[in-house]
Every structure is written in C-alpha cells, then in structure tokens.
Amino acid sequence: MPQSTKHSQPTRIRIDRRSMLKGSAVLATASVAGVGGSLVGAAPAHAAGMEAIDDRTHGRMRYVLASTPSIDWNPSVNVLLPDGYDPARRYPVLYLLHGGGQNFQKFKEDDIEGLTAGRDLIVVMPDGGIAGWYSNPVTSNAGMRNWESFHMDELIPWIDANLSTIPEAGGRAVSGFSMGGFGALKYTAKYYGHFASVSSHSGPANLRGDWGHVVTDWANTTSMAELLGGTVYGVPWDEARVSADNPMERIESYRGKRIFLVAGTAPLDQEAVVLATQREFGGALEAAGIPHERYEEPDGHFVRRERLQQDIDGVIDYLIKAG
Question: Which residues form the signal peptide (predicted)?
C-alpha cells in the first residue's frame, strides 16, 4: 500500500467566505416559500433500471444515452475502452466523476484517451448534474435528480452487465475532480464493498467544522440551480444525511483502500477551502494509521494532468489485472 506523504504544520488559510456563500440568504427564503413552486422531497432510491436509448462507439469511446428512473432527463455516459478491447477478457474499471458546472465530456479535455493509451483499463465517465453533488437531494423542484441512485444502483450494474469487467471491489476504482472528488470519497465510504481505490483531485473532504461548514453551504447554494430551489442537504440541514455523506466521519471506511489526494495551495479561491479539508482528512487518516498519498501543488482549482496520470497508473497497479 502507498505511504502517506508528510507535510509540515499547515498555516492558517485566508479566504473571502462571501464568494463561497454567495446566495446563502436566498436559501432561507427558498426553505420557506420554494422557487417556482412547492418543494417536494426527493424520491426514494430505485432498483437497477437503466436502459440505453442510444449506444454507439467511435474508436475507443463508447457513448451511451441513458433512460433512468432516477433522473427526469436522459443523462449521458462516456465509456473509454482499452485498445484492442476483447470481450473474452475481464478488465478493471475506473469511474471518473466530473466537477460542478461540467458534464460527462469533462475528461476528454484532460486527454483521458492519451492518459490511458495502451492500458488495460475501462474508464466510465457519467453525467452527475451541474450541481448534483453525487447525492439524492433532500428537496427538488425539478423532478427526479437522484444522482447517487443512478450511479450506484443503476450505472454500475449496467456496466458490469454490458461490458467485460471485473465485477467486484478489487476490480473497481473511483476518482473525481472538485465536486466529483467529493463524490468519489463519499461513494467509497458509503458503499464500502464497491471500490478498492479512491482519488480526489481538488475535492473537499469534510462537511463539518469551520471549513466543512463552508462546503456544506456551498453544496446547498449551488444545488439550488439544478433543483430549482431545492437543496442537497435541506434548510436547516438534514444532519443525519450530512453525517452519512461526510468523509471525515467515516474514516474507518477507508481502511484497506488505496487513497490518493491532491489539492492546490492558492490562498484566495475555493481551492483554499478544499486544501483545508484535505489537510484535516489526511491528518485523520494518519492518526488512524491508514496509509494514503496526499499532494499539495501550486495554484488553484483545476485538474493537474501529471497527477491524473500518476493516479491512473496507481489505479492500474493496485486493481486486479485484466485477464
């Protein structure tokens, strides 16, 4: 297992919290009156029910347009196949989750095809909503937006049923950027038997405490756009749901996993909050004796290609090999 990267005592990070909490006042109003109509509770999780209504392959990239009972529109999924994909073999799978304001195409920008060329790895890159936070929201005024149910109850079984995968934890990894990095950490802890490796590229790792409070408000505020006034965690927060999703409150769930964390050191943007929570999370892992890799890099909130390549290489080395 990889060992922890040691860091000096962190200095206090300064950030203008107003930029992180812009729109928080609107939340209080929305909690009373809603936006564009009455808020409704999110629907319960569904059993596996994804169907492909468009499914085509160009080169190594397979594009799937999904019909799912968990989302009231048709989300898309990019599936990057290995060179010379052979259905007679079984391949490990990396689920790669995009950030806020992005979609299933995000990692094409980061040259995911080049980063995986010649490697025996399937990469699954699903839609996760512009601000879905990889969650089933407490309230929605936009119909079904149950991203967690879609990914965990429907997409993973569909991938295992339709591709030649290694359908067990030892054959699966999850990684993501920003909101997707949080989603990767959340899914790994909440669904312990699904993934052997988890990676967070500039993803927040705590929903409580001084900086985690900012993240939870950030998730609620940004999710209003997707949910038309609804929120991921409710106003006031559904405390049980926050705890269930919070990586910092599920440290033991990461024991025995490969863990890869990276964040930037820019002092005055959202990366400062991300870095603070990753430092807290890394410290908790270290105190628990859980090996991990953690890196701090210059600058702000973006995918660092060299770290993504390092992460992919580590995933391939750690998971069960194709065969």
Answer: none
